[in-house]
Amino acid sequence: MNYNKEILENSEIKYVVEADSSAWQNAIREAYNKTKHKFNIEGFRKGKAPMSVITRMYGVGVFFDDALDIILQSLYTELLDKETDLVPVARPNVDIVAISDSELKVAFTVTVTPEFTLGEYKDLKLKKVSSKVTDEMVAEEIAKAQEKAGAWENVTDRACEKFDTVVIDYSGSVDGVKFEGGTAEKQNLELGSGMFIPGFEEQVEGMKIGEEKDITVKFPEEYGAENLAGKDAVFAIKLHEIKKKVLPEVNDEFAKDVSEFDTVEEYKKDIKSKLKKTAEEKANREMENALLDKIAENTEIKIPDAMIEEQIEEMIQEFEYRIAYQGMKPEDYYKYTNSSRDELRLRYNEQAQKQVKMRLVMDAIIKAENIKAEESEIEAKIADFAKGANKSVEEFKKTMHPEQARYIENDIITNKMIDFLMANNKFA
Length: 428
Prior knowledge:
Radius of gyration: 34 Å
CATH topology of the largest domain: Trigger factor, domain 2
CATH architecture of the largest domain: Orthogonal Bundle
Number of strands: 11
CATH superfamily of the largest domain: Trigger factor, C-terminal domain
Largest sheet: 5 strands, antiparallel
């Protein structure tokens, strides 16, 4: 294989590769062997016609497409083996320069990491994010525990009020005609929850057990069912039960019931400790993100389109995988949402640009500071994974995919880089 190299604009390099004549002819021969069964030529059993006969009848290029499928990847791999400093960041564009039964020249246009000057990333001053935990925040957590531990009691001596749960029958009609989905019996409804259309729950409030009445509501203009959107409806209501949630008193007995502690004070102290830890983690994440955003803002990079497109494609594939995991085919999702893959590409464009730029900036910092993952750090991380999988380190290593090993190393390096940045910048 012979090739020449041309440096282009926009972080692209063009390699014109000439395949060895023998390699190209072998690929054509392989393409013939793979496809000869498709040819039915008079005088020969199907699949038995010699290659020379087929090419005379259909032309010398009849096998070229299949032969290209066979040889292109090997040509590109060989090119990468020879150009040891070449690190593509996207799939190459391929153009055929010359092709015949004895000659093949192919142009690989390869996108590489753009050259740029890293902006200031040390001694920056940013705003510190508060991780303060207040008594009100503790009280909110206790209120949630109260709500969870509360018990429903039947109410018989008054009309229903907001936040009560009622059991009702209802039958809805528009212009005197009942509509699908508008009738139910012994339906539970928490008043004030907003589960029903506007005005419904408010008109149920004040009803007593056994009471029946008609209420009038208007369906929202944007209601899902077109035949009901914007229409006035009458609902015949009958109320059967009223229930009120009674919350437990916050005392030592409550603490014992909802936690591992014997006293309220111990329980509150534990809540505050957990809230503090969560708040600190959240604050650190926010400051890390703000710092990375600031460094990226300080750095000018002309990002190649191919890198953006590659990132968008990765994001779309991840999205389609998620919805497929939930049981929906991507094509059905696009149909039901009246959208398309192209619209999704446009929606992801800005986010993809940000992610690519951030990755380039982080890689540049890692390189500038010579941040590496030590063997002991990698081994410790593998040991953690092995423990989580309930395996020995040796057993876990045998099942490790190379991609998993790279993930562990990259994760260590990334965390060390962030620790470095947090230690070398100021938050006040």
